[in-house]
Amino acid sequence: MAAIRIASLVPSITELLIALGLRDHLVARTGFCIHPAEAVREVPKVGGTKDVNLDKLRRLRPTHVIVNVDENRLDTVEAIGAWPPAERPEIIVTHPSAPEDNLALIDQMVQAFGLIDGVTQRGEACRRELADELALTTPGAYAPQFVLYLIWRDPWMTVARDTYISRMLAHVNWHTSPDVSGGEHGAGRYPVVRGDEAWLPDVHQVLLSSEPYAFGPQHLDAARALCPNAQARIVDGELISWYGPRAAAGLRYMRTLAA
What we know:
By secondary structure, the chain is an alpha/beta fold.
């Protein structure tokens, strides 16, 4: 079997690859691929998820490049696909849109790399853990709540109901406001909140994500002012929005938040 050289342009999938035992095959990552820190420290960085350094990536000679519909730009994927045939890697496109989609994501990675020793067995273990957590985290066990999940400030930005984040919250019967869908990709998935929307007084909780905007305690008062009848708190954005091996921990975290 030819040497497998993997470039991951998706932070949560970089973490998944390492969980599957593929660290020695990982030759490139983005600057946002930070977990697990010790394992990724020596893996070359090729820019960010949206601004990949294609020249550096090409010099690293990946045989496989893993991308994501939300995280990466289409023109980046098209540019990689246009490399000369002798240098062109296999492009693996991912798009989990709900916690349960991680089962198919694990299968996708095992299908691609399962001939490498231990990958299939580790994939099965990841699948079992996730299936157990999905079974334990069911909406019917919790009272319904409307939440405003903030990911950005100036302007305030939230998430549409067809995003991974919203569907993670829905596992504990928390429903993101506004009640809109954003489609498969694009800005509509992350609506701007002006502050004068009619639904804001109906929000029970304002959740300020720790990423991508680094919300902190200093932002709580401004968030409360948006929704006069809601409580506001900081939440771990990685546990709620990252897929891969963090999804099982994310479901456990959601049960803790909703308790």
